[in-house]
Amino acid sequence: xxxxxxxxxxxxxxxxxxxxxxxxxxxxxxxxxxxxxxxxxxxxxxxxxxxxxxxxxxxxxxxxxxxxxxxxxxxxxxxxxxxxxxxxxxxxxxxxxxxxxxxxxxxxxxxxxxxxxxxxxxxxxxxxxxxxxxxxx
Length: 137
Prior knowledge:
Layout (H helix, E strand, L loop, with lengths): L4 H23 L4 E5 L2 E9 L5 E10 L8 H4 E5 L4 E2 L3 E4 L6 E10 L6 E9 L2 E9 L3
Antiparallel strand pairs: 1-2, 2-3, 3-7, 4-5, 4-8, 6-7, 8-9
């Protein structure tokens, strides 16, 4: 199969649209932070849309305690409709150390959802750290 220059341009524009579309979703949400017992946890949604897997960039930083938590067991996502989601995976640095960063991925959100709350439990003896966002249309 031969592709013309016009075909490559269309593919390039489509790829750019997909990349920009994803970037728009990611840029629509602000980073939130929680400081407690010497640990700063920051969370920024990377993907947060109806009927899509929810993805959050999570960063944990400290100079005082070991960050040994398995984020797939201490995190939970809740929506405003009463659904609870367990993380499907953590793509990031392993437990241990003083600086961890990665992406926490949850199953697709059940529609219609207007807001979600990410809960991270028991990091540096803080029972719950909560981060809430309204779903952008």
